[in-house]
Design a protein that fits this description.
binds zinc ion; 11 helices; 6-stranded parallel beta sheet; 24% helix; alpha/beta; 7-stranded mixed beta sheet
Length: 347
């Protein structure tokens, strides 16, 4: 076993503290990665506080993991020592069910093995995430990181990037598509960059007028202030696709009114309570209200390659791990542009 330094929440809601645990020795299909950077996702905070229920402690969060390959098992073919590699939200799945066979491991009928707050497919061994010095992962769930990308900025692609790339692709966004992005945070800023790179005309829909400059710098062609009712009139029926990244309570019906005929609104944020939707919001314009969850492994690699080609990374603030609890506080206040990334050299 490999003794591994980490930061962990020892009990629900406790501040993260230094902790050590044993990683498995890499098996014949495993890649051992020395972790360089790990992004701080809002869901790390939800889970460390057990806000979704059933969380496993001690918990080492982190599912935006980038590092260098330190060792490969005998049967590994796609990685060699020294390669840059990534691990996202999943480390394994059953690989045999219909979703897994379609490359949609996030919907594995047996439940994927998520990178932390989960178990390996033996359903006994707990998984620990990227707020740690190293990780062993089957090469089938290890991603190649294009050398053109800054590794700290690339880390958030593994969750925030794929979470927004997948619906943009699934709803076939391309040149001339009109895309609205609701909320300019970790997810929203990636949706703007990716949508613009795909050729779409992207409009940022935000409650904060101070975000307009940043939205335009990130690639948005338009801006709509959602605290102003006139915005919803001006943009009525405008968008082929709206990506809704907001996890605070808000009225889906108002946003659906900006979707064009046969268009869709896709939610990737999770408000704390169920959100009422009036049937007329969907009937009028034959609109679709949909959801999306990260993306499968093949699509995650496709996204990374797309970002490598277009030189897209996340805007990040790199932090030493000792300030992680402060970073959580600031994330909760949306006081980050637009993702904290932990430098694991500081652990
Ligand atoms: Zn995440
Ligand atoms: Zn499966």
């Amino acid at each position: 076993m490999l003794r591994t330094k980490a930061y962990a929440a020892l009990t629900p809601g406790a501040p993260l503290v230094p902790w050590e645990f044993d990683r498995r020795d890499p098996g014949e299909r495993d890649v051992l990665i020395d972790i360089e950077y790990c992004g701080v996702c809002h869901s790390d905070i939800h889970q460390a506080r057990d806000e979704w229920g059933g969380a496993l402690f001690p918990m080492v969060p982190g599912h935006e993991i980038i590092g260098r390959v330190a060792k490969v098992g005998a049967k590994v073919t796609r990685f060699k020592v020294g390669d840059r590699a990534g691990v996202g939200c999943m480390v394994d799945s059953c690989r045999d069910c219909a979703p897994c066979r379609r490359g949609l491991e996030q919907f594995c009928v047996k439940g994927a093995a998520f990178s932390y707050n989960s178990t390996e497919m033996d359903r006994k061994t707990p998984t620990y995430g990227g707020y740690s010095k190293r990780i062993a992962c089957d090469e089938a769930f290890t991603l190649k990181i294009p050398s053109s990308l800054d590794p700290a900025g690339a880390a958030p692609l593994l969750c925030a990037g794929i979470t927004t790339y997948s619906p943009l692709r699934h709803w076939k966004v391309g040149k001339g598509s009109k895309v609205g992005v609701v909320g300019l945070g970790g997810l929203g800023h990636m949706a703007v960059k990716l949508g613009a790179a795909m050729g779409a005309e992207v409009t940022m829909l935000s409650t904060s007028p101070s975000k307009e400059g940043d939205a335009r710098r990130l690639g948005a062609a338009g801006f709509g202030l959602t605290t102003d009712p006139a915005t919803f009139k001006r943009l009525a029926g405008r968008f082929d696709l709206i990506i809704d990244t907001i996890s605070a309570p808000h009225d889906y019906n108002a946003y659906l009114s900006m979707v064009t005929i046969d268009g869709a609104m896709v939610v990737v944020g999770v408000p704390p309570a169920p959100t009422p939707v009036h049937a007329f919001s969907l009937i009028q314009g034959r609109r679709t209200l949909a959801g999306s969850l990260i993306g499968g492994i093949p699509e995650t690699q496709e996204m990374l390659d797309f970002c490598g080609e277009h030189r897209i990374v996340s805007d990040v603030e790199v932090i030493p791990i000792a300030t992680i609890n402060e970073a959580y506080q600031r994330t909760l206040k949306s006081d980050v542009r637009y993702r904290f990334v932990i430098d694991l050299a500081t652990l």
